[in-house]
Amino acid sequence: MINARGWLISLAGVCAALMAPQARPAAQGVATVSGRVTIGIPVSTRRPTNTYSRTARGVKLAPASELLNVIVFLKDAPRSTVAPTRAEIRQISETFVPRAVAVTVGSEVSFPNGDPFYHNVFSLSRPRTFDLGRYPSGQTRAVTFGRPGLVKVFCQIHSHMSASVMVFDHTWYAIPDEDGRFELNDLPPGPRTLAAWHERLGETTTDVRLAGGRAATIDFVLPVPQQ
Question: Which among 145, 169, 193 is the end of a domain?
Fold first, then answer.
């Protein structure tokens, strides 16, 4: 015969057993990817061809600052609910700073003029076409990006100026730090393709199978020499 105390202990054990399986999938249903991006040749050169020697001497690493112009993201990612953010691309010494930003759909990017002369920021890209007109030093004008895609930004007055705004309809993207390190969290498991994009070197991709509740390490070397 089971007394009242034993009955309560047994009931508590059954409840714990029923609750445990429900908690595991939520905790183990997503994956994490971290890694490092390295730019192996000067960004002013073209991508290597079949005639390029992988053992060529005198090849130098690109400046560390170029890593801030790389965007790592999950390619062909499923759409998800995203919250708009804010970003800024300054105009300093006839240069856009930074030259690459990543935002979510609905986000606003401001373009403050920090030079002692006029600028005219514009884009003819399909995801977002705009022309902010000429505005003087100290003024700021902004653009809201409502569609995903790559938006190339220029200045009508200074033709050598360019920047890029990458707009995503998900949150699985990151800009590496000064050491090239990045991390993407809460990724959906399964076979996936990760991309590392640089404004001048283009896009490099790698395939990976992500397991729920596990972390993966992916390193990129830009650009990848062709075999």
Answer: 169
